[in-house]
Amino acid sequence: MTKITLSGVNKSFGANFPVIRGVDLTIDDGEFCVFLGPSGCGKSTLLRMVAGLETAYTGQIQIGDRVVDKVEPADREVAMVFQNYALYPHMTVYDNMAFGLRQAKTAKDEIERRVKEAARILQIEPLLDRMPKALSGGQRQRVAIGRAIVRQPKVFLFDEPLSNLDAALRVHMRSEIATLHRNFPAASMIYVTHDQTEAMALADKIVLLHAGKDMLKHGSIAQVGKPLDLYHRPRNLFVAGFLGSPTMNFLEASFVAQEPAGARVVLKGGEEIVVPVDGSALASGAPVTLGVRPEHLAPVAAPGAQTLTRKVSAVEHFGEYSFVYLDGGTPAPLIAKVPGDGGVKAGDSATYQAPADCCHLFDADGLALNHI
Amino acid sequence: MASSPVARATGRVAVPVLGLFWLAVTTVPFLFMVMTSFKSQQESFSSSVWALPEALDLVNYNDVLSGPFLTYFKNSVMVVVISVLLIMLISSMAAFAFARMRFRFNEAIFGLIVAGMIVPIHITLVPIYLMTRQLGLYDSQFALIGPYVATSLPISVFILTEFMRQIPKELEEAARLDGCGPFAIFFKVFLPLSGPGLSTIAIYNGIMLWNEFIFAYVLTSSTGTRTLPLAIWDYQGQYTANIPAILTVVTLTSLPLVVAYAFGQEKIVKGMMAGSLKG
Fold first, then answer.
1. What 3-state DSSP class applies to A327?
2. Could A79 and B171 be called an inter-chain contact, meaning their C-beta atoms sit closer than 8 Å?
3. Contact by Cβ (8 Å): A206, A227
4. When comparing pLDDT for B152 and B52, which is higher?
5. Residue A37: closest CA among A242, A189, A212
6. pLDDT class for B168, splitting at 50, 70, 90?
7. Which of the following CATH numbers is that of domain A249-362: 3.90.950.10, 3.90.550.10, 3.20.20.80, 2.40.50.140?
8. What's the pTM value of the predicted model, to 2 decimals?
9. Which residue of B has its CA nearest to A98?
10. Shortest CB distance from A53 goes to which of B168, B176, B192?
11. pLDDT, tens digit, for every residue of A101-122?
12. How many domains, chain B?
């Protein structure tokens, strides 16, 4: 059993700097869970609390059936891969991987067997006699993962393991970490990143964390769920804005009426949009925010139902697709992500349709209204 | 901001000129010392100070080496080696605690130890002399080790603490996850990684203690226990001094340091830089 349970976990640095508030979370047996959030949201702190490297907190952390709040890091049956690899510079790759096993007084032939097996899995067998300084960034990261594997932990902890690698290597190592998860199906994995692409690609479950005032107001956890659930059904404006690139377009609107197809809202430009959500609790004229992702805005020839017509302020071409920036009367321009060159240029007037099932509606408190 | 061409040209001239000036300042006394050690006492008075020796006369070396010089040398080696090893062990353990452990009054205690650097050793001479007598250590080589270690610790703790603060926190955390307690973290991770810092304090203290005079003068009195800096006293009377013999002693005393520098120049410079630059 490697289920990890965090109950009512809070942590502050000093008396006045809360970093984690009210975390209740369960990570299931063998699950790949990603802690995602902006800088300063406490995701690494939360991971380090599971590792036992941060101790002064309230609440309870359980790994399997055991409460581990007072258990030393080495006895928690966890292994951690650090952002800067944290390889011992004075030891060879072999000794780095064997160090933990030697500390645990594992038999010499068993250490050799495990290190060689891990080296084979990670394809670092020719590097075993090298010192860390003679390795590239990707090789170092492999060794750091190897050091975790040989301990055969119940839980793997990754603290932004790819952030020091270049973009191409990051994609490659990402797939290797996914393979690692498949190779060790019994082990639970917790992975910290601020990169939503990594989170979407790897996670069985994403835990998106609030930072700053949102954390103080709503607690640390913004939303927990499968990656596509967070993408398609964000619980609030923060989640909706955090996931997706470019970020979701937000338009101020007023609630008109609840209809069988959903809530009808009117935008500042006068267009009426129907969003398939339950707005029955809203009063007529109540301020709401309409959310629609750039990739869901489809160009259409003429204004009609569910359409927005705006002046094009700029177009960025990326070959396969283009970003069309629309002057929406909002502080941030509206963005439409369209195939090819977009067929428009700056100064044109363009019309885009926002399909009803791709629209989101948020009340005045920023909470998403439930889809019907 | 880029420097102007005039400033660059001035720099190109000034740096070598200053370098040559400093070379002269440091080399001239050294040459004087070595040259005079080959002169007889009479020649040293009759010839010009800067005149080369008339012949490569080894009589001073014979005199010095046939005297108690080797006993002083053996005493110096023993006292310096034991002292430096103790300084390295104690200061590295203290530095680890100050750099890595969180406990009450950490900074205050560190500040007090470092403040020890500003205490002139001369004001400690009388109490140390009395304590040494009371401990029954007076006029033994061991009388020197305690004061040597104690007076060297402040600078050594300071250098090593700064050095250990630069070692990434993650290495300590990785070691904790690998099952290390504080002692294993210190001996298996921090001590091996502190090599450059340890070299710095070994070199610095080794040179200082090799040349140390005042404690050796106060705490030892017999030929069998004295160290090299006191050897020159053997060649100095109340009204006269055998200058060539004294400079022979000084030459022989500085020889181990010169040889060590010649062979380990790169490591010594690296070690001395280690305290100031992040590895």
1. strand
2. no
3. yes
4. B152
5. A242
6. very high
7. 2.40.50.140
8. 0.82
9. B178
10. B176
11. 999 999 999 999 999 999 998 8
12. 2
Q: Is A244 exposed, middle or buried (0-12, 13-18, 19+ CB in 10 A)?
A: buried
Whether the CB of A84 is below 8 Å from some CB of chain B: the reply is: yes
- pLDDT digits over A48-73, tens only? 999 999 987 889 999 998 999 999 99
Are the beta carbons of A103 and B178 separated by less than 8 Å?
Answer: yes
A60 - beta bridge partners? A7
Cα–Cα distance for residue pair B209/A216, rounded to 1 Å: 59
**Cα gap B121→A341, rounded to integer Å:** 81
CB-based contact A269:A253 (threshold 8 Å)? no
* pLDDT tens string A217-256: 888 999 999 999 999 999 999 999 999 989 999 999 999 9
Q: What is the reported pLDDT for B58?
A: 87
Cis check for the bond before A246: say yes or no (omega within 30 of 0): yes
pLDDT at residue B55 in the model: 81
Class for the domain spanning A4-241: alpha beta
Q: How far is B180 from chain A (nearest CA, A)?
A: 7
Task: Classify residue B129: in a domain, yes or no.
Answer: yes
Residue B278 confidence (pLDDT) = 37
Token duo for residue A353: 């349709």
Hey, are the CB atoms on A90 and B178 less than 8 Å from each other?
no
Domain extent at residue B150: 67-274
In chain A, % helix, strand, coil (3-state, to 5) comes to 30, 35, 35
Contact A74 B174 (CB under 8 A): no
Provide the number of CB pairs (under 8 Å) joining chain A to chain B.
Answer: 55
What CATH number does residue B100 fall under? 1.10.3720.10
Does the beta carbon of A55 lie under 8 angstroms from any beta carbon of chain B?
Answer: no
Contact A104 B179 (CB under 8 A): yes
Query: Do residues B242 and B119 share a domain?
Result: yes
Q: Which residue of B has its CA nearest to A150?
A: B178
A332-353 pLDDT, tens digit per residue, is: 789 999 998 888 888 889 999 9
Q: How many Cβ atoms from other residues are within 10 Å of residue B23's Cβ?
A: 10
Rounded distance between C-alpha atoms, residue B30 and residue B257, angstroms:
13
CB B40 within 8 A of CB B57: yes
Distance CA A255, CA A284 (A): 6
CA separation for the pair A142, A122 (Å, rounded): 6
Per-residue pLDDT band at B279 (split at 50, 70, 90)? very low
Which of A106-120, A315-329, B241-255, B257-271 has maximum average pLDDT? A106-120
The mean per-residue pLDDT over the stretch B75-85 comes to: 96
Residue B191 has a CB neighbour count (10 Å cut-off) of: 18
